[in-house]
Amino acid sequence: MAAVTSPESTPQPRVYFQTPPGTEEEVPQKQGRVTVKYDRKELRRRLNLEEWIVSQLMNLYDCEEDEVPELEIDVDELLDLPSDVERAIRVKMLLVDCYKPNDDFVAALLEKVRGMQKLSTPQKKGDLTP
């Protein structure tokens, strides 16, 4: 199916890539299209969840944001686990060096994760394989 364009149609969104200033080779700007669409509502929920996790970890570890231990609480990994019990065990394993009670954090995290969708790379239009 051919796309129909007319002078009245709005231009397609574009992304411009630039080389950082001060590099030896000057490369002309490349033009690219944003072709991947994500569910913005789900992305916003993820961002809010990540911000909440950071604030909770700051409270649990009594530290500033840049001092929070490098913990990787992967929401997609939690969603892959079959039950809340296994999710709680996984989060508690990540918090093994936290000496404050963290049961409330784990319960609240599991409540926030419940109902979220796993983020996956959308398939290309022509790709029909599941």
Strand content: under 5%
Q: Low-confidence spans: pLDDT under 50, at least 5 residues? A: 1-6
Structural class: mainly alpha
Element pattern in H and E: EEHHHH
Determine the N-to-C terminus distance. 23 Å
Identify the strand order in the major beta sheet.
1-2
How many beta-strand segments?
2
Number of helices: 4
Give the key terms.
protein serine/threonine phosphatase inhibitor activity, mainly alpha, CPI-17_sf, Protein phosphatase 1, regulatory (inhibitor) subunit 14Ba, extended, disordered N terminus, 130 residues, acetylation, two-stranded antiparallel ribbon
Question: In summary, what is this structure?
Answer:
With 130 residues, this protein is mainly alpha-helical.
Written overview of the protein:
- By secondary structure, this protein is mainly alpha-helical.
- The protein has a domain at 71-118.
- Helices cover 38% and strands 5% of the residues.
- The protein contains 4 helices and 2 strands.
- It has helices at residues 40-61, 75-80, 84-94, 103-113; strands at residues 15-17, 30-32.
- Strands 1-2 form a two-stranded antiparallel sheet.
- Helix 3 packs across helix 4 (103-113).
- The chain is extended, with a radius of gyration of 22 Å.
- Residues 1-6 have low confidence and may be disordered.
- This is Protein phosphatase 1, regulatory (inhibitor) subunit 14Ba.
- Residues 1-12 have a biased composition (Polar residues).
- Keywords: Acetylation, Phosphoprotein, Protein phosphatase inhibitor.
